[in-house]
Each structure stands twice: as C-alpha cells, then as structure tokens.
C-alpha cells in the first residue's frame, strides 16, 4: 500500500501543511481540478472564513473524565464525527486512488463516501474495507444518470457490494464555471476515468460538476441552449428523488442542500439525512457558506420534526473543514458529522493511504483538544452556547 515516497513528511502537522506539500507534487493539470472552485472562488474562500468568523467561548474547570468523540449516526456508533466525502478521480492524486483513501478511513474509524465518479471500481473499494471491524460507515454517492435503468443498476451494484447508504448529490446538475480548470486546459490523463459509469447506455452518463467539460451530445438548432435544450433535459427533480427512495432499500441522504425549504422537502420525502454542502464552492460561485446555512437547516428540520412528533433527520455538513475547531463548531451548530473534501486528497497526493490516515488522526486529535479546552467532554455536550459570531 505504500513505498518510501508515501512516507509521512515530518513537517506535516496540520491539514494545511498537506495542501502546501501537495501543490509541490501535483502537476498544474491535477492541481487545477483537485483544488479549484467555481469562477472567482468566492464561495470556496467563504466556506473557510465562515468557520474562522465563529469564535469560541470556553468554560473552564468542567468535569472532563470519561470524555470521548463518539457520535450516533444512522443506527451506528462512530468513533468520531469525520467522514471522507465523495471526491471524483482520486487516481489523479495517487496511483491507488480511492482504495488508499478507503483503507485509511477504515484504519481511523472514519466513514467513507465513494464518488459515483471514482477512478476505481466501486466493488474493489468496498471489497478492500467491507470486512474491517473498526471501519466507519461505507456510503455510495450517486449522480443521477440520464437513464433510470442505469441509475437503478448502479444503486443495485452499490447495494450488492456492501455500501450501507446512498448519498444523492443534487447541487451539480451542470459543470460549474470553473475558470481555473479552463485556464489550465484540464484533461483527465490516460488511465483515469469514471470506471463505474463505463457501461452507461448510449445517451451516456449525465455530466456533472465533477466531470470534465464536454460539448453537447446532440446538434442544437440556432438559438438553442446547450444547457437547457440538451444537458438539463435529463437533470434530476424531486420526482426522481421520490422514485429513487422507493427503488432502494438503503437509507438515502441528500447532499448539496443550502435552503431550509429544500431540507424540509428532502425529509418529507423520507431522506435519512441531509448534507449541507455547496460542493466545496465548485458549482455556484457566491452561494452562501455552509457554516451560514447549517444552523438554519438544523432549526428548520427540528421544527418540522417537532410538529410531526418525530425525531429530526441528522444533518451533516462539509466545506472548508480544516481544523478540529471547525469540527467542533459544526457539531455545536447542530451537525451530527462533517465531511472532508480537498484536505484528504492533498494528503493522498503527498503520502498515499498513510497521508490520509495521518490527516484524519490530526483532525481527530485537534477535535479532542478543542472539546477539552471548551469544557465539553463529548460531542453531545456541545451547544451553540460555546459559539460567538465575530461581529457579536
Ligand atoms: C476534486 C473534487 C471532486 C469532487 N467530486 C465530487 C463528487 O464526485 N461527488 C460529490 O458529491 N461531490 C464531489 N466533490 C465535493 C465534495 O464532496 C465536498 O462537497 C467538498 O469538497 C467539501 O469541501 P472541501 O473541499 O472544502 O472540504 C468534489 C470536490 C472536489 C474538491
């Protein structure tokens, strides 16, 4: 799983160190794809600064014995609330790609969400970790495909391979305006492709924010739009979510929600969870930060559930999580768990599975320290009482 070149660099003591080291190792093509955001990258930066703008108000002299980082999620107890989020084409970062990330997640008890556009077959990734006793949840991220039959077949493959939930990404019906990639002339190198989608029927896999840009599939009449008259003809709607809910026995989570009304609709349609995300700032630039959207969605779902006398579905969040204090702030705002995107792919590029495992360990250690220093022994003890908005 590793060689000398996958050794953990002694100067990597925080996730940001892996980002700087990855920049030195990756070529401009891979860097533009793996690190970039949409347009002016305002949302990409806002995701980070929104966490920084929340300050902590610790309590001292609190009893901390028996503390831990465990959380409950979809009927399981997780060692800590960090999952590796879905990131496409990880063989751009390391020859072992998603296999290395999965093994690292498993070694650290972290959940793994495998991208539909993974560059390693979903069966191979599941097979590498499925039987590990200490692994976290194993979820499959689905992009809606042009063909319902093919969508169903993908979900059935994920079920058969041992994935335990489907994460449907709903914020990327089109490729964002990704200037950084266009400037770099981004191309997938030979040997890196969306292997799970290779058998898509003639209409092809539905291109997404994470596919390389492509010309329209069919000739357009003058005045027609490549978006509205071609690509978006097969885009996902709430009716498709309803269909998918009934087409799988696995819990369905909806990823890419920023608006309270969409969160409520997802829960009403039977979603098992909602992931507050703006795709790491890769789709709609100037969209709100996830730290801004998170408490609004948590409150909306709590209110909806209380009115129905039910328990609210869990909310997860991603975007700009780089520090244990970010994890703590997310949980204090009401998230059950967080997902990482770029940081673990940077660690993958630098030191393969060792790097990813190390970055997860760094984040968990920081989270433990942050819990202790805010005077909270467990994630369950966190509340908004420890948070102060910088302008407050
Ligand atoms: C290179 C790259 C590829 C991504 N591919 C996918 C994908 O295939 N499916 C998906 O739902 N989200 C994808 N995302 C979004 C991530 O799952 C996640 O929402 C985002 O990266 C979180 O922000 P962060 O990178 O600041 O941690 C991708 C993100 C990056 C950076």
Structure description:
This protein has 392 residues and is an alpha/beta fold. It has twelve helices and twelve strands. The strands form three sheets. Strands 4-5-6-7-8-9-10-11 form an eight-stranded parallel β-barrel, surrounded by eight helices. Helix 5 (122-129) links the parallel strand 5 and strand 6 (138-142). Helix 11 crosses helix 12 (342-374). It is globular, with a radius of gyration of 20 Å. The mean pLDDT is 94. The structure holds flavin mononucleotide (FMN). Flavin mononucleotide (FMN) is lined by residues 33-34, 47, 85-88, 115, 117, 141, 169, 210, 255, 277, 279-280, 282, 318-321, 340-342.
Number of strands: 12
Structural class, from helix and strand content? alpha/beta
Distinct bound molecules: flavin mononucleotide
Order of helices and strands: HHHEEEEHEHEHEHHEHEHEHEHE
**Oligomeric nature of the chains:** single chain
Largest β sheet strand count, sense and barrel closure: 8 strands, parallel, barrel
Helix content: 25-40%
- Low-pLDDT runs of 5+ residues are none
Mean pLDDT level: 94
Give the N-to-C terminal Cα separation. 49 Å
Q: Whole-number radius of gyration?
A: 20 Å
Q: How many H/I helices?
A: 12
Biggest sheet, spatial arrangement of strands: 4-5-6-7-8-9-10-11
The fraction of residues assigned to DSSP E strands is 5-15%
């Amino acid at each position: 799983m590793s060689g000398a070149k996958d050794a953990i660099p002694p100067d990597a003591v925080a996730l940001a160190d892996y980002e700087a080291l990855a920049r030195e190792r990756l070529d401009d093509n891979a860097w533009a794809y793996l690190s970039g955001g949409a347009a002016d990258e305002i949302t990409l930066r806002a995701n980070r600064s929104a966490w920084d703008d929340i300050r902590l108000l610790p309590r001292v002299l609190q009893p901390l014995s028996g503390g831990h980082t465990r959380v409950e999620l979809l009927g399981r107890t997780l060692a800590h609330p960090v999952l590796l989020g879905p990131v496409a084409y990880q063989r751009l970062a390391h020859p072992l790609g998603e296999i290395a990330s999965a093994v690292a997640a498993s070694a650290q008890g972290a959940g793994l969400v495998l991208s539909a556009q993974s560059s390693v077959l979903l069966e191979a990734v599941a097979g590498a970790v499925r039987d590990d006793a200490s692994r976290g949840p194993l979820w499959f991220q689905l992009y809606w495909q042009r063909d319902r039959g093919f969508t169903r077949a993908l979900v059935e493959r994920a079920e058969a391979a041992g994935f335990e939930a489907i994460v449907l990404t709903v914020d990327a019906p089109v490729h964002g305006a990704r200037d950084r990639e266009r400037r770099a002339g981004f191309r997938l190198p030979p040997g890196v492709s969306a292997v799970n989608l290779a058998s898509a029927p003639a209409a092809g896999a539905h291109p997404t924010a994470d596919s390389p840009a492509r010309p329209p599939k069919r000739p357009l009449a003058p005045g027609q739009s490549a978006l509205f008259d071609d690509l978006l003809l097969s885009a996902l709607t709430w009716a498709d979510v309803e269909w998918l809910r009934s087409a799988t026995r696995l819990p369905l989570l909806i990823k890419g929600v920023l608006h309270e009304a969409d969160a409520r609709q997802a829960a009403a349609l039977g979603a098992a969870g909602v992931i507050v995300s703006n795709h790491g700032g890769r789709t709609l630039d100037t969209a709100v930060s996830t730290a801004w959207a998170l408490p609004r969605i948590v409150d909306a779902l709590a209110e909806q559930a209380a009115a129905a006398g039910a328990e609210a579905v869990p909310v997860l969040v991603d975007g700009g999580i780089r520090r244990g204090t970010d994890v703590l702030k997310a949980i204090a705002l009401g998230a059950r768990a967080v997902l990482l995107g770029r940081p673990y792919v940077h660690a993958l590029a630098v030191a393969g599975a060792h790097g990813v495992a190390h970055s997860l360990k760094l984040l968990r250690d920081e989270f433990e320290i942050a819990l202790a220093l805010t005077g909270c022994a467990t994630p369950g003890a966190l509340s908004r009482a420890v948070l102060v908005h910088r302008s407050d």
